[in-house]
Amino acid sequence: MDDLYRELIIDRYKNPQFRGELDPHDITFEDDNPYCGDHIRVDVRLDENNIVTEAVYSGEGCSISQASADLLIESIHGKPLDEVKALTKEDVLELLGIELGPVRLKCALLSLKVLKAGAYGLGEASDDLVT
Amino acid sequence: MTLNEQKLAALDIQKIRGDFPILNREVRSGIPLVYLDSTATSQKPLQVLSVMDDYYRRSNANIHRGIHVLAEEATGAYESARERIAAFIGAATPKEVIYTRNTTESINLVAQTWGRANLENGDVVILTEMEHHSNLVPWQILAAERNLRLEFISVTPDGLLDLESYTELLKLDPKIVAFTHMSNVLGTINPAREIIQMAHTVGALTLVDAAQSVPHIPVDVQALDCDFLAFSGHKMCGPTGVGILYGRRELLEAMPPFLGGGEMIKRVELRSFQNNELPHKFEAGTPAIAEAIGLGAAVDYLAEIGMDAIEQHEQEIIAYALERLEEIPGVKVFGPEAQYKGGVAAFTLPEAHAHDISQILDSDGVAVRAGHHCAMPLHNKFGITATARASFYLYNTEEEVNKLVDGIYKVKKIFA
Ligand SMILES: Cc1ncc(COP(=O)(O)O)c(C=O)c1O
């Protein structure tokens, strides 16, 4: 538990660095976690080579969902879109540096699911994107 | 002292706790379980576990059509459970007691059979703003199919039903009023008798979602005079997989069947069938036999302790819990004062999300639920997405409330 609430997570929850919305944007997507109502929207701007120049997220939810969004969005700055599409569950867990049970895992992976659904230009987000 | 007063005076919590083996476990080494999530599902006493275990060890057989000892025993136990469940809720006859999977299936059964046979274009169905999704979505499905008009009794800021808004809605000539007897979020115990009487004066039928009332307070379907009443075994010390639909006999007789298959028929020909009699008419296929028998043991257990005594114990616990929770700076508990509610306290803290509250409480073994508790419209109404919810049952103690409160202070420290 003490692990779960390591300083990094509480800090990113209370002082997020990548919260906001971008208009215009090249990619935007939003979705909910149906079990708890957590909500995340992600906006991304790309340059002509499809490299992420700016990205932010908005929404609300628990510390795990919000902190993982903040860390994930930070990590994609300067990355080619193809690398964003290839991000996995393990990448997010590594950013968080904690282990999670199946319920909290959904909180942690909501932002990745939203980001990848947007990156692939899908109509709907699916858990298949983050398993 | 009358026997009843003795029971009230003497709800022996330590003895009761001894009946529930799970309450002895540690969730992690050295950390005992503090189970405050009985609104989601209750724990099960040995009296229920052993009856189900015995059934599988000694009597397991399919029911009703076997002429051998095991089939006779299984059928006898299954039907005897129905009789005791009928007596527990005051039904006039066991024929009015239909086994389903849970409250949700019971409500869907009514919407799909009575609803399809009786509701058409423009008909009004009255629900409330505090319903569980299981008493919303079945009606929404039917409303889309039949172009029905759904109307909602509003909830006051205190978490009570606004009976003035109900009086107005009754002028719309509703066909049915379906409402929760006790809210699983606010804990509000609604004035069911009055709501039903008012519905009947305009000729509307009533369906009571009793998922939270039958486990926690005395419920008598004839005293309520309700037309349908639904509840789940797993919230009342029984197993998952079995629930009940009570329906007035004339209504059930007139309704078309629900699922088709074995058991629900009297005769089948290649192109037609004849319904079986009540209650079997609504029980297609092999049912949850062990679970039904387990639910019979659960009502025996609750009746033995006494529903009045259980209600009084929960009143004491919730009054104490509200008092302690309201001492904590920032805690907001939803729902009315203790006297209008059962043992449910859904709350928020400004500094931490419900998930985080629940996770940190769990580190001290305190199990509460976090989320919208299958009542998203109610949470929207109060402008929130999630609450943490502590709920109490016959086995909970004031000491457990204290552990909850200590845990909330820990949350405040971590998120300070
Ligand atoms: C008021 C209420 N209605 C209906 C239900 C649904 O019960 P089940 O999931 O057993 O069908 C619940 C369970 O949470 C409830 O609290």
Q: Major beta sheet of chain B, specifics?
A: 7 strands, mixed
Give the rounded overall mean pLDDT of chain B. 95
Task: Tell me the quaternary state.
Answer: heterodimer
- Based on the structure given, which CATH architecture of chain A is correct? Alpha-Beta Complex
- Examine the coordinates and then state which fold CATH places here, giving the name of the CATH topology of the largest domain in chain B: Aspartate Aminotransferase, domain 2
Put simply, the count of helices of chain A is 5
Please mark out the parts of chain B with pLDDT under 50 across 5 or more consecutive residues, or reply none. Answer: 1-8
Give the percentage of residues in beta strands of chain A.
15-25%
Mean pLDDT of chain A: 92
Largest sheet of chain A: 3 strands, antiparallel
In CATH terms, what is the fold-level topology of chain A?
Sufe protein. Chain: A
Q: Which percent band covers the strand fraction of chain B?
A: 15-25%
Got a strand count of chain A?
Answer: 3
| H/E element sequence of chain A | HEEEHHHH
Shape of chain A: globular
The CATH superfamily of the largest domain in chain B bears the name Type I PLP-dependent aspartate aminotransferase-like (Major domain)
